[in-house]
Design brief:
The protein has four helices and six strands. The chain is an alpha+beta fold. Helix 2 runs parallel beside helix 4.
Length: 184
Amino acid sequence: MDNSRWHEFEQRVSVEELLHVAAEPLVWPVPEGWALSLAERNSDTLAAIAALEERRVDASDDDNPLVQEMRRMDAKLTALVDIVNRLLTPNDTLPGQRPVRFNARGAVIPTELVPAGDTMLLSLRFDHCRSLPLELPAQRERQLDDGRTFVAFSTLSDAQGDAIERLVFRHHRRKVAGVRQLPG
């Protein structure tokens, strides 16, 4: 087995989170039109996630009425997005939340989620944007000793890889900031 994809994965920043995750078998190679459509949907999903995670307001401007109004609007939009997510994708239709470690090179997922065969479509859903799954063609690469499997992403464009890296960086940075704020 070639370990180069595993080493590339290990050398990059990754983040481990509880995500709604599912995997289904995928026949390889995929039709080009389907791959382009999937890439476009994934780009839209990554852009939506980035927009929903973005924090534009600096807490130091609390007294500014414009900042306060922007915060109120942000809270209303967040509530609206949550309502739409719940209507479009009710909790009982989502796959279960499982720990997933991922970056732009691949993901480490529980082995019981890996379908038969070596290729799959991995679906990741983030809580704040759960109606838009990030669907990534992947190949089984390595069985780990802890009951998880590393799957390497296939057919990602440079732009998609960069967007996933930015997503991972934001989530990693948020986790590090959370750890630093813990009383110790």
